[in-house]
């Protein structure tokens, strides 16, 4: 056993956790703090001071309109956008990412990440878990307990919390299809639902509205519906009737649990229970936690730099959470598969999707660099797949042309966490359809994140019958560091 992995102790049973949790610790209904789910953590807890902000663009960012333009290709391939030069000689990106172009010394791009599916649900599962293989019993319509665990779930399980907050958080929403089905790949899967990552759900679901609301909300099919959503940052307070005095009384009662601890586990394996209780108290009393989440009341100048929209607020919250000690924050930028541009691709990317992303990611990089945190914070940005080389037209549904799903290649953005800026990893063919050198797999992508989090190649998690499962399924992407 590696020296930095603590010795394994027996886990608290679910029944015991239920019995202890049944006293209703704080009397408020925040399910992520529910002691009913506070089972003992996996034995492979690892100490690390590294961080990652994982930006996921649900729907499929077009490589041709972002980081891998093909200006010499035919019109049906190259599209309407022009490349612009970046701060890095020889590196060009979309004209609609001008702020990132000025910061190319801070980031690099891999243009050759590839997998074998063009289907949304499987694509999400592959990229969010870092596993190319299809799990037994996979159901594209809903998450299954046989799914592979997400990167966020693994990070949350194996990393020791640095604060009373969990080590991995997902915001501002779960990824949900417009039909209302929850997309698989976001959860703990076969690790067990008790190890799902924490979700801060600040972005209400809307059946036909996409993008960075309210400022950049739109509908792919231009049906003209209204969108009155409000970005709902978590409001942390004691529940009605739960005064500070009553809370104190309850905490006093909890001290009596000390008499039961020897019964629960003579080795003191109530650490997980204590951790969840501490997290609950922290959320109610820690000004840093309140400040991290209350982004819509941040200084106006800060909000303007990030953008007063769901993309900007989400990345501002992610940065603040990292500053409080959260190791991995996954940010879903655009629910309802906002980046699924089968039609109207050029106006929607130009006017609705790329501008707020360009602004928010640039502000994030600026702040991390200014604070000295960029060197220890990996920022990654990807989708479930790229888009087809050829433009197509679905005239019955969309007014203007677009591109379809394409798993064969996508461009993935990397910054910080030891990544050297201004680099391009891999080359695609003349039409941006297939890698011609340095192809990368989702397993390499996940390994890059795990390395940035400081997890050793020997890291593993244990299932409910104590079997170890190694975390790394590939090597980190070569050439980034």
UniProtKB/TrEMBL annotation:
InterPro entries: Alkaline_phosphatase_core_sf, DUF1501
Pfam families membership: DUF1501
Transmembrane segments: none
Name of the protein in its database record: DUF1501 domain-containing protein
């Amino acid at each position: 056993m590696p020296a930095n992995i603590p010795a394994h102790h027996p886990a608290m049973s679910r029944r015991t956790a239920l019995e202890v949790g049944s006293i209703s610790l704080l009397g408020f209904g925040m399910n992520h703090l529910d002691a009913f789910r506070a089972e003992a953590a996996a034995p492979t807890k690892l100490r690390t001071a590294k961080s990652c902000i994982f930006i996921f663009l649900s729907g499929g960012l077009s490589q041709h309109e972002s980081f891998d333009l093909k200006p010499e290709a035919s019109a049906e391939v190259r599209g309407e956008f022009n490349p612009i030069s970046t701060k890095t000689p020889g590196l060009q990106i979309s004209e609609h990412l001008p702020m990132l172009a000025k910061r190319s010394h801070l980031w690099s791009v891999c243009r050759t990440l590839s997998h074998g599916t063009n289907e949304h649900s499987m694509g999400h599962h592959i990229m969010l878990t870092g596993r190319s293989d299809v799990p037994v019993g996979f159901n594209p319509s809903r998450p299954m307990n046989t799914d592979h665990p997400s990167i966020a779930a693994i990070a949350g399980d194996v990393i020791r919390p640095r604060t009373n907050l969990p080590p991995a958080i997902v915001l501002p929403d779960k990824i949900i299809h417009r039909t209302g089905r929850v997309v698989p790949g976001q959860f703990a899967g076969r690790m067990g639902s008790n190890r799902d990552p924490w979700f801060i759900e600040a972005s209400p679901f809307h059946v036909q509205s996409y993008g960075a609301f309210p400022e950049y909300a739109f509908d792919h099919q231009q049906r003209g519906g209204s969108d009155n959503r409000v970005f709902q940052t978590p409001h942390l307070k004691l529940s009605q009737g739960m005064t500070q005095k009553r809370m104190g009384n309850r905490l006093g009662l909890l001290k009596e649990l000390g008499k039961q601890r020897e019964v629960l586990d003579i080795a003191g394996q109530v650490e997980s229970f204590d951790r969840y209780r501490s997290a609950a108290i922290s959320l109610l009393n820690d000004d840093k936690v309140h400040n991290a989440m209350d982004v819509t009341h941040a200084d106006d100048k800060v909000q303007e730099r990030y953008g007063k929209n769901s993309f900007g607020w989400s990345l501002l919250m992610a940065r603040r959470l990292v500053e409080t000690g959260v190791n991995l924050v996954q940010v879903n930028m655009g629910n309802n598969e906002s980046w699924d541009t089968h039609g109207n691709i050029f106006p929607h990317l130009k006017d609705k999707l790329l501008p707020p992303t360009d602004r928010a990611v640039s502000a994030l990089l600026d702040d991390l660099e200014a604070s000295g945190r960029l060197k220890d914070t990996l920022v990654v940005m990807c989708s479930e797949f790229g888009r087809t080389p050829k433009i197509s037209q679905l005239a019955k549904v969309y007014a203007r042309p677009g591109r379809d799903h394409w798993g064969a290649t996508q461009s993935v953005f990397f910054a910080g966490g030891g990544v050297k800026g201004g680099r391009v990893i891999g080359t695609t063919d003349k039409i941006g359809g297939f890698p011609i050198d340095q192809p990368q797999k989702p397993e390499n992508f996940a390994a890059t994140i795990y390395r940035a989090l400081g997890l050793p190649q020997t890291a593993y998690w244990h299932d409910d019958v104590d079997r170890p499962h190694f975390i790394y399924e590939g090597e980190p992407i070569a050439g980034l560091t």
